[in-house]
Amino acid sequence: MKKVEGEVQEVVGDVGEIVTTTGDVDVVEEETHFTSASAQVLIGEIMVCNRDLEMVKQNITDVQ
């Protein structure tokens, strides 16, 4: 779906908030049903992000 600037997409359903320790807020659907498979995918994505973050930290340390 292509959006035009200023256009608002209507979403129907209940939503909730997840507030992280850094103060970031994610809005999520209340009725999200996780399966074992989707949890494994999510865990894998988190692990990749953590690895990438560690590489960035190491690169910053190397530059300093």
Rg:
17 Å
Which class best fits the helix and strand makeup? alpha+beta
- Major sheet strand order: 1-2
| Count of strand segments | 2
Helical fraction equals 40-55%
Instruction: Assign an overall shape.
Output: elongated
Strand fraction: 15-25%
Biggest sheet descriptor: 2 strands, antiparallel
> Number of helix segments?
1
Overall average residue pLDDT: 73
**Poorly predicted ranges (pLDDT <50, ≥5 residues)?**
none
The succession of helices and strands, N to C, reads EEH
Distance between the termini: 44 Å
Question: What do you see in this structure?
Answer:
The structure is a single chain. By secondary structure, the protein is α+β, with helices and mostly antiparallel strands. Helix content is 44%, strand content 16%. The protein contains one helix and two strands, in the order E-E-H. The protein has one helix at residues 36-63; strands at residues 15-19, 25-29. It has a two-stranded antiparallel ribbon. A hairpin with a 5-residue loop joins strand 1 and strand 2 (25-29). The protein is elongated.
